[in-house]
Amino acid sequence: MKELIDPSNLPKHIAVIMDGNGRWAQKQGAARVFGHRNAIKAVREVTEGCAELGVGYLTLYAFSTENWARPRLEVQALMELLVQTIRDELPTLQKNNVRLDSIGDLNSLPDKCRNQLAEAVGQTRHNTGLNLILALGYSGKWDIIQATQQLAREIKAGTLQPEDITEGLLNERLATQGRPDVDLMLRTGGDHRISNFLLWQLAYAELYIYDEVYWPDFRRTHLYEGILSYQQRERRFGKTSEQIKVGE
Ligand code: IPE
Ligand code: IPE
Ligand code: MG
Q1: For the whole model, what pTM was predicted?
Q2: Cα 181 to ligand 2 centroid, rounded to whole Å
Q3: Could you count the other beta carbons within 10 Å of the beta carbon of residue 116?
Q4: Cα distance between the two ends of the chain
Q5: Is ligand 1 within 6 A of the CB of residue 137?
Q6: Whose CA is nearest to atom 3 of ligand 1?
Q7: Could you name the active-site residues (predicted)?
Q8: Rounded distance between C-alpha atoms, residue 240 and residue 136, angstroms
Q9: Cα–Cα distance between 206 and 56 in angstroms, integer?
Q10: CA distances from 152 to 59, 156, 157 (A)
Q11: Does 68 show up as a binding residue in the annotation?
Q12: Catalytic: 88?
């Protein structure tokens, strides 16, 4: 399937809602955390798949602001898994020239997570391949609020006028600053919703939902399937199809 992908029309930025771990585990009579533990292989698959194809940016929704409200033991297990995974995967990230970064309210994370993350981000910062961004303690509304607060502080300090606030400036204050908008958003687990992920950055993203695949079963072929669907679409950005065809 990989050979069908047109390398000249790759999405620059792919974002993924990695959903369905709990249901994957429950389906086989296991506890939800069993699903989280089995999700790591899928993370590796999507990361390596994107790195091999030459996709520029991959943002993975790993833990949302709202996920803090889950049962305490599940949250604890997820945080421990996070520390462990970042530590274990660091050599592979280096080998694949992947640059790791994160978006989200890092202060909401346990110290151990924040430190492990900072360590991996620091060690991979000179890598020049795929930019892998983990959304942790992230939500789209949180992002827009924190950006608005920064702008309000600048206005209060007198360094910014309200009319200076443009799409470009707000872009620079969002956690995703400097990265292109999302071209393709993938979601496993069959739910057709955004769940407070990148709200602003998804404005013109193409959506691809896997109705039959839970995240732990996600493999490179699923990534290729999503990209092929993306390549068959006409992105009009509000224009007419005729305008797009003549390249206006
Ligand atoms: C996604 O799987 C992982 C996180 C949200 C951390 P879920 O844990 O949401 O699994 P389901 O959707 O309940 O099956
Ligand atoms: C979205 O999944 C968040 C992550 C994958 C990290 P959820 O399972 O939290 O989403 P809802 O609650 O079903 O919308
Ligand atoms: Mg879910």
Answers
A1: 0.97
A2: 21
A3: 19
A4: 32
A5: no
A6: 19
A7: 19, 67
A8: 38
A9: 17
A10: 28, 6, 9
A11: yes
A12: no
Each domain of the chain, given as residue ranges in start order, spans 7-139+181-247
Ligand 1 centroid vs 232 CA: distance in angstroms? 29
CATH code of the domain occupying 7-139+181-247: 3.40.1180.10
33 closest CA partner among 86, 87, 70:
70
* Nearest protein Cα to ligand 2, atom 1: 195
Q: Is 19 a catalytic residue?
A: yes
Determine the residue type at 56.
Answer: G
- Print the SS3 string covering the chain: CHHHCCHHHCCCEEEEECCCHHHHHHHCCCCHHHHHHCCHHHHHHHHHHHHHHCCCEEEEEEEEHHHHHCCHHHHHHHHHHHHHHHHHHHHHHHHCCCEEEEECCHHHCCHHHHHHHHHHHHHCCCCCCCEEEEEEEECHHHHHHHHHHHHHHHHHCCCCCHHHCCHHHHHHHCCCCCCCCCCEEEECCCCCCCCCCCCCCCCCCEEEECCCCCHHHCCHHHHHHHHHHHHCCCCCCCCCHHHHHCCC
Give mean pLDDT, residues 46-65: 98
In single-letter form, the type of residue at position 21 comes to: N
Residues 102-116 pLDDT 10s: 999 999 999 999 999
pLDDT in tens, 208-233: 999 999 999 999 999 999 999 999 99
13 pairs with which residues across the strands? 57
